[in-house]
Write a structure and sequence with these properties.
The complex is a heterodimer of chains A (228) and B (128). Chain A has 228 residues and is mainly alpha-helical. Chain A has one domain: Four Helix Bundle (Hemerythrin (Met), subunit A) (Up-down Bundle), CATH 1.20.120.80. Helices cover 77% and strands 0% of the residues of chain A. The longest helix of chain A is centred in the last third of the chain and has 37 residues. Chain B has 4 helices and 2 strands, in the order H-H-H-H-E-E. In chain B, helix 1 packs antiparallel against helix 3. The chains are: A mainly alpha (228), B mainly alpha (128). At the A-B interface, helix 1, helix 3 and helix 7 of A face helix 1, helix 3 and helix 4 of B.
Chain lengths: 228, 128
Protein backbone atom coordinates (compact mmCIF):
# COMPACT_ATOMS: atom_id res chain seq x y z
CA UNK A 1 0.00 0.00 0.00
CA UNK A 2 2.59 2.53 1.03
CA UNK A 3 4.54 1.82 -2.15
CA UNK A 4 1.96 3.82 -4.10
CA UNK A 5 2.94 6.89 -2.11
CA UNK A 6 6.61 6.63 -1.27
CA UNK A 7 7.02 10.28 -0.19
CA UNK A 8 3.99 10.61 2.02
CA UNK A 9 4.51 12.12 5.42
CA UNK A 10 2.57 9.50 7.39
CA UNK A 11 2.01 10.40 11.02
CA UNK A 12 3.35 7.72 13.32
CA UNK A 13 -0.04 6.54 14.57
CA UNK A 14 -0.97 5.36 11.07
CA UNK A 15 0.17 2.22 9.27
CA UNK A 16 0.22 3.84 5.85
CA UNK A 17 -1.02 6.77 3.77
CA UNK A 18 -4.30 5.07 2.94
CA UNK A 19 -5.17 4.60 6.60
CA UNK A 20 -4.27 8.24 7.25
CA UNK A 21 -6.48 9.32 4.36
CA UNK A 22 -9.39 7.23 5.63
CA UNK A 23 -9.03 8.55 9.18
CA UNK A 24 -9.04 12.15 7.96
CA UNK A 25 -12.15 11.57 5.85
CA UNK A 26 -13.97 9.73 8.64
CA UNK A 27 -13.18 12.49 11.14
CA UNK A 28 -14.39 15.16 8.73
CA UNK A 29 -17.65 13.30 8.04
CA UNK A 30 -18.32 12.88 11.77
CA UNK A 31 -17.79 16.63 12.18
CA UNK A 32 -20.22 17.22 9.30
CA UNK A 33 -22.73 14.90 11.03
CA UNK A 34 -22.64 17.23 14.05
CA UNK A 35 -23.16 20.14 11.65
CA UNK A 36 -26.22 18.39 10.19
CA UNK A 37 -27.64 18.18 13.73
CA UNK A 38 -26.79 21.84 14.33
CA UNK A 39 -28.66 23.03 11.24
CA UNK A 40 -31.27 20.27 11.77
CA UNK A 41 -32.51 21.99 14.93
CA UNK A 42 -33.09 25.18 12.92
CA UNK A 43 -34.88 23.30 10.14
CA UNK A 44 -37.07 21.46 12.69
CA UNK A 45 -38.11 24.69 14.42
CA UNK A 46 -38.71 26.29 11.00
CA UNK A 47 -41.09 23.40 10.15
CA UNK A 48 -43.06 23.81 13.39
CA UNK A 49 -43.40 27.58 13.26
CA UNK A 50 -44.28 27.55 9.59
CA UNK A 51 -47.17 25.19 10.41
CA UNK A 52 -48.25 27.42 13.29
CA UNK A 53 -48.10 30.66 11.23
CA UNK A 54 -48.48 29.73 7.53
CA UNK A 55 -49.68 33.17 6.43
CA UNK A 56 -46.89 34.95 8.30
CA UNK A 57 -44.27 32.75 6.65
CA UNK A 58 -45.77 33.25 3.17
CA UNK A 59 -45.83 37.01 3.63
CA UNK A 60 -42.35 37.04 5.15
CA UNK A 61 -40.95 35.07 2.22
CA UNK A 62 -42.51 37.66 -0.07
CA UNK A 63 -40.24 40.28 1.51
CA UNK A 64 -37.16 38.48 0.18
CA UNK A 65 -35.77 38.86 -3.31
CA UNK A 66 -35.93 35.43 -4.96
CA UNK A 67 -33.84 36.63 -7.95
CA UNK A 68 -30.91 37.55 -5.71
CA UNK A 69 -31.40 34.24 -3.89
CA UNK A 70 -31.26 32.35 -7.19
CA UNK A 71 -28.18 34.31 -8.27
CA UNK A 72 -26.41 33.41 -5.03
CA UNK A 73 -27.43 29.76 -5.46
CA UNK A 74 -25.73 29.72 -8.86
CA UNK A 75 -22.65 31.45 -7.38
CA UNK A 76 -22.43 28.83 -4.63
CA UNK A 77 -22.90 25.87 -6.98
CA UNK A 78 -20.20 27.29 -9.27
CA UNK A 79 -17.89 27.63 -6.25
CA UNK A 80 -18.54 23.95 -5.50
CA UNK A 81 -17.42 23.10 -9.03
CA UNK A 82 -14.21 25.14 -8.67
CA UNK A 83 -13.60 23.54 -5.25
CA UNK A 84 -14.06 20.06 -6.73
CA UNK A 85 -11.59 21.04 -9.46
CA UNK A 86 -9.15 22.33 -6.80
CA UNK A 87 -9.28 18.92 -5.09
CA UNK A 88 -8.81 17.29 -8.49
CA UNK A 89 -5.74 19.47 -9.19
CA UNK A 90 -4.32 18.67 -5.75
CA UNK A 91 -4.79 14.94 -6.35
CA UNK A 92 -2.76 15.25 -9.54
CA UNK A 93 -0.18 17.55 -7.94
CA UNK A 94 -0.83 20.48 -10.29
CA UNK A 95 0.23 23.42 -8.15
CA UNK A 96 -0.72 26.29 -10.46
CA UNK A 97 -4.16 24.88 -11.23
CA UNK A 98 -4.69 24.25 -7.52
CA UNK A 99 -3.90 27.87 -6.63
CA UNK A 100 -6.09 29.11 -9.48
CA UNK A 101 -9.13 27.03 -8.53
CA UNK A 102 -8.75 27.82 -4.82
CA UNK A 103 -8.59 31.51 -5.68
CA UNK A 104 -11.71 31.26 -7.88
CA UNK A 105 -13.54 29.48 -5.05
CA UNK A 106 -12.45 32.21 -2.64
CA UNK A 107 -13.71 34.94 -5.00
CA UNK A 108 -17.08 33.21 -5.48
CA UNK A 109 -17.41 32.73 -1.72
CA UNK A 110 -16.71 36.43 -1.12
CA UNK A 111 -19.21 37.33 -3.88
CA UNK A 112 -21.87 35.29 -2.11
CA UNK A 113 -21.26 36.92 1.29
CA UNK A 114 -20.95 40.39 -0.28
CA UNK A 115 -24.25 40.10 -2.18
CA UNK A 116 -25.91 38.81 1.00
CA UNK A 117 -24.57 41.65 3.13
CA UNK A 118 -25.16 44.57 0.79
CA UNK A 119 -28.10 43.65 -1.47
CA UNK A 120 -30.07 41.67 1.10
CA UNK A 121 -29.35 42.35 4.77
CA UNK A 122 -28.50 46.04 4.35
CA UNK A 123 -31.50 46.47 2.04
CA UNK A 124 -33.72 44.75 4.64
CA UNK A 125 -32.38 47.12 7.26
CA UNK A 126 -33.14 50.16 5.08
CA UNK A 127 -36.69 48.98 4.29
CA UNK A 128 -37.35 48.28 7.99
CA UNK A 129 -37.91 44.54 7.61
CA UNK A 130 -34.89 43.49 9.70
CA UNK A 131 -36.24 41.98 12.94
CA UNK A 132 -35.17 43.82 16.08
CA UNK A 133 -34.22 47.00 14.21
CA UNK A 134 -37.57 48.79 14.30
CA UNK A 135 -39.49 46.20 12.31
CA UNK A 136 -42.25 48.02 10.43
CA UNK A 137 -42.74 47.10 6.75
CA UNK A 138 -44.04 49.91 4.54
CA UNK A 139 -45.72 50.46 1.19
CA UNK A 140 -46.01 47.43 -1.09
CA UNK A 141 -44.51 45.15 1.58
CA UNK A 142 -47.19 46.11 4.07
CA UNK A 143 -49.94 45.80 1.43
CA UNK A 144 -48.84 42.24 0.64
CA UNK A 145 -48.81 41.33 4.33
CA UNK A 146 -52.34 42.70 4.76
CA UNK A 147 -53.54 40.91 1.63
CA UNK A 148 -52.45 37.59 3.17
CA UNK A 149 -54.03 38.49 6.53
CA UNK A 150 -50.73 37.77 8.18
CA UNK A 151 -50.06 39.04 11.71
CA UNK A 152 -47.04 41.37 11.70
CA UNK A 153 -45.45 39.49 14.61
CA UNK A 154 -45.56 36.25 12.59
CA UNK A 155 -43.88 38.00 9.63
CA UNK A 156 -41.20 39.28 12.01
CA UNK A 157 -40.78 35.72 13.32
CA UNK A 158 -40.16 34.53 9.75
CA UNK A 159 -37.58 37.29 9.31
CA UNK A 160 -35.91 36.10 12.55
CA UNK A 161 -35.65 32.61 11.04
CA UNK A 162 -34.36 34.10 7.78
CA UNK A 163 -31.66 36.18 9.47
CA UNK A 164 -30.62 33.41 11.85
CA UNK A 165 -30.48 30.62 9.25
CA UNK A 166 -28.77 32.62 6.51
CA UNK A 167 -26.60 34.33 9.15
CA UNK A 168 -25.28 31.06 10.54
CA UNK A 169 -24.81 29.83 6.97
CA UNK A 170 -22.89 33.00 6.03
CA UNK A 171 -20.74 32.54 9.14
CA UNK A 172 -19.82 29.10 7.81
CA UNK A 173 -18.96 30.74 4.49
CA UNK A 174 -16.65 33.21 6.25
CA UNK A 175 -14.92 30.33 8.05
CA UNK A 176 -14.61 28.60 4.66
CA UNK A 177 -13.04 31.73 3.16
CA UNK A 178 -10.50 31.68 6.01
CA UNK A 179 -9.69 28.02 5.33
CA UNK A 180 -9.28 28.76 1.60
CA UNK A 181 -6.89 31.64 2.37
CA UNK A 182 -4.71 29.33 4.47
CA UNK A 183 -4.77 26.72 1.68
CA UNK A 184 -3.78 29.28 -0.96
CA UNK A 185 -0.80 30.45 1.14
CA UNK A 186 0.25 26.83 1.74
CA UNK A 187 -0.10 25.96 -1.94
CA UNK A 188 1.81 29.11 -2.91
CA UNK A 189 4.70 28.05 -0.68
CA UNK A 190 4.62 24.60 -2.26
CA UNK A 191 3.54 22.88 0.96
CA UNK A 192 0.66 21.05 -0.70
CA UNK A 193 1.95 18.23 -2.85
CA UNK A 194 0.33 15.31 -4.55
CA UNK A 195 1.13 13.22 -1.50
CA UNK A 196 -0.19 15.68 1.07
CA UNK A 197 -3.43 16.82 -0.51
CA UNK A 198 -5.65 15.46 2.30
CA UNK A 199 -6.04 18.98 3.65
CA UNK A 200 -7.52 20.22 0.37
CA UNK A 201 -9.92 17.30 0.22
CA UNK A 202 -11.15 17.91 3.78
CA UNK A 203 -11.63 21.64 3.09
CA UNK A 204 -13.57 20.58 -0.02
CA UNK A 205 -15.91 18.39 2.05
CA UNK A 206 -16.62 21.36 4.33
CA UNK A 207 -17.24 23.72 1.40
CA UNK A 208 -19.61 21.31 -0.35
CA UNK A 209 -21.47 20.77 2.92
CA UNK A 210 -22.09 24.52 3.27
CA UNK A 211 -23.35 24.41 -0.34
CA UNK A 212 -25.82 21.62 0.57
CA UNK A 213 -27.21 23.68 3.47
CA UNK A 214 -27.88 26.55 1.05
CA UNK A 215 -29.57 24.15 -1.40
CA UNK A 216 -32.21 23.59 1.32
CA UNK A 217 -32.33 27.18 2.59
CA UNK A 218 -33.01 28.66 -0.85
CA UNK A 219 -36.41 27.01 -1.57
CA UNK A 220 -37.58 27.06 2.06
CA UNK A 221 -36.86 30.77 2.60
CA UNK A 222 -36.96 32.45 -0.83
CA UNK A 223 -39.23 30.38 -3.07
CA UNK A 224 -42.02 29.93 -0.53
CA UNK A 225 -43.74 33.21 -1.25
CA UNK A 226 -42.94 34.11 -4.86
CA UNK A 227 -46.41 33.35 -6.23
CA UNK A 228 -48.39 34.98 -3.42
CA UNK B 1 -4.91 2.94 -3.00
CA UNK B 2 -8.67 3.26 -2.92
CA UNK B 3 -8.68 6.96 -3.64
CA UNK B 4 -10.53 7.85 -6.77
CA UNK B 5 -9.54 10.62 -9.16
CA UNK B 6 -12.69 11.64 -11.00
CA UNK B 7 -12.63 13.25 -14.43
CA UNK B 8 -13.23 17.02 -14.81
CA UNK B 9 -15.84 16.24 -17.48
CA UNK B 10 -17.95 14.46 -14.88
CA UNK B 11 -17.69 17.43 -12.52
CA UNK B 12 -18.94 19.74 -15.27
CA UNK B 13 -21.88 17.40 -16.01
CA UNK B 14 -22.83 17.38 -12.30
CA UNK B 15 -22.45 21.18 -12.21
CA UNK B 16 -24.77 21.62 -15.20
CA UNK B 17 -27.31 19.23 -13.65
CA UNK B 18 -27.25 21.31 -10.44
CA UNK B 19 -27.78 24.53 -12.40
CA UNK B 20 -30.64 22.87 -14.32
CA UNK B 21 -32.30 21.69 -11.11
CA UNK B 22 -31.93 25.19 -9.62
CA UNK B 23 -33.68 26.65 -12.68
CA UNK B 24 -36.38 23.97 -12.38
CA UNK B 25 -37.05 24.57 -8.69
CA UNK B 26 -37.19 28.34 -9.27
CA UNK B 27 -39.57 27.94 -12.23
CA UNK B 28 -41.86 25.53 -10.35
CA UNK B 29 -42.05 27.98 -7.42
CA UNK B 30 -43.74 30.53 -9.70
CA UNK B 31 -46.56 28.06 -10.43
CA UNK B 32 -49.05 27.70 -7.60
CA UNK B 33 -49.39 23.91 -7.70
CA UNK B 34 -51.61 23.70 -4.60
CA UNK B 35 -54.23 26.00 -6.13
CA UNK B 36 -53.87 24.52 -9.61
CA UNK B 37 -54.56 20.95 -8.49
CA UNK B 38 -57.13 22.03 -5.91
CA UNK B 39 -55.27 20.48 -2.99
CA UNK B 40 -56.08 22.25 0.22
CA UNK B 41 -54.03 20.50 2.88
CA UNK B 42 -51.00 19.41 0.87
CA UNK B 43 -48.15 21.93 0.47
CA UNK B 44 -47.30 20.52 -2.95
CA UNK B 45 -44.94 23.37 -3.91
CA UNK B 46 -42.84 22.75 -0.81
CA UNK B 47 -42.83 18.98 -1.38
CA UNK B 48 -41.64 19.40 -4.99
CA UNK B 49 -39.01 21.95 -3.86
CA UNK B 50 -37.74 19.59 -1.15
CA UNK B 51 -37.59 16.60 -3.52
CA UNK B 52 -35.50 18.70 -5.96
CA UNK B 53 -33.31 19.91 -3.07
CA UNK B 54 -32.72 16.31 -1.94
CA UNK B 55 -31.74 15.37 -5.51
CA UNK B 56 -29.29 18.30 -5.64
CA UNK B 57 -27.83 17.46 -2.23
CA UNK B 58 -27.41 13.83 -3.31
CA UNK B 59 -25.56 14.89 -6.47
CA UNK B 60 -23.22 17.11 -4.43
CA UNK B 61 -22.68 14.38 -1.82
CA UNK B 62 -22.17 11.48 -4.22
CA UNK B 63 -19.94 13.19 -6.77
CA UNK B 64 -18.42 16.42 -5.41
CA UNK B 65 -17.91 14.91 -1.95
CA UNK B 66 -16.80 11.57 -3.46
CA UNK B 67 -19.26 9.45 -1.46
CA UNK B 68 -19.70 7.31 -4.54
CA UNK B 69 -16.12 6.13 -4.15
CA UNK B 70 -15.84 6.39 -0.36
CA UNK B 71 -15.50 3.48 2.02
CA UNK B 72 -18.60 2.03 3.64
CA UNK B 73 -17.71 3.40 7.06
CA UNK B 74 -17.98 6.98 5.74
CA UNK B 75 -21.29 6.21 4.07
CA UNK B 76 -22.45 4.78 7.40
CA UNK B 77 -21.68 8.11 9.09
CA UNK B 78 -23.76 9.94 6.48
CA UNK B 79 -26.68 7.52 6.75
CA UNK B 80 -26.58 7.79 10.56
CA UNK B 81 -26.54 11.59 10.40
CA UNK B 82 -29.56 11.69 8.08
CA UNK B 83 -31.35 9.08 10.23
CA UNK B 84 -30.73 11.14 13.37
CA UNK B 85 -32.01 14.23 11.58
CA UNK B 86 -35.17 12.28 10.69
CA UNK B 87 -35.60 11.32 14.37
CA UNK B 88 -35.16 14.96 15.39
CA UNK B 89 -37.78 16.26 12.98
CA UNK B 90 -40.25 13.34 13.31
CA UNK B 91 -40.32 13.23 17.11
CA UNK B 92 -40.54 17.02 17.45
CA UNK B 93 -43.36 16.99 14.90
CA UNK B 94 -45.07 14.06 16.64
CA UNK B 95 -45.52 16.34 19.63
CA UNK B 96 -46.43 19.63 17.96
CA UNK B 97 -48.60 18.37 15.13
CA UNK B 98 -50.77 16.08 17.25
CA UNK B 99 -51.46 18.42 20.18
CA UNK B 100 -54.96 19.34 19.11
CA UNK B 101 -56.08 15.93 17.90
CA UNK B 102 -57.74 15.16 21.21
CA UNK B 103 -59.35 18.08 23.03
CA UNK B 104 -58.06 18.02 26.56
CA UNK B 105 -59.95 20.10 29.12
CA UNK B 106 -57.59 22.44 30.95
CA UNK B 107 -59.61 23.48 34.01
CA UNK B 108 -56.51 24.95 35.68
CA UNK B 109 -56.62 27.78 33.17
CA UNK B 110 -59.12 30.18 34.70
CA UNK B 111 -59.91 32.01 31.46
CA UNK B 112 -60.99 28.85 29.67
CA UNK B 113 -64.68 28.41 29.06
CA UNK B 114 -66.25 25.20 27.89
CA UNK B 115 -68.70 24.69 25.08
CA UNK B 116 -70.77 21.64 24.47
CA UNK B 117 -70.86 20.79 20.80
CA UNK B 118 -72.57 17.59 19.65
CA UNK B 119 -71.98 15.91 22.97
CA UNK B 120 -68.26 16.77 23.26
CA UNK B 121 -66.93 19.27 25.77
CA UNK B 122 -64.62 21.67 23.99
CA UNK B 123 -62.49 24.17 25.91
CA UNK B 124 -62.26 27.56 24.21
CA UNK B 125 -58.45 27.39 23.98
CA UNK B 126 -58.46 24.29 21.81
CA UNK B 127 -58.53 24.82 18.08
CA UNK B 128 -60.28 22.11 16.14
Amino acid sequence: MSDAHPHVAVAEQFDDAEQQHEAAGLGMWIFLATEIMFFGGLFASYTIYRNLYPAGFLAGSGLLNAKIGAFNTVVLITSSLTMAMAVHSAQLGRRKALIGFLFLTLLLGLTFVGVKLYFEWYHDYLTHVAPGFGFHPEGADLARIHALHAPLSAVELFMCFYFLMTGVHALHMVVGVGILTVLIVKAWRGRITRESHNIVEMAGLYWHFVDIIWIFLFPLLYLLGVTR
Amino acid sequence: MSEHVASPKMYVVIFLSLIGLTALTTAVAYVNLDAMLGLKNLPLNTIVALVIAICKASLVGLFFMHLRWSSNVMRLVVVCAVFWLAILITLTGADFFTRNWIPIPRPWQASVTYQRSSGIVIPSNVRR
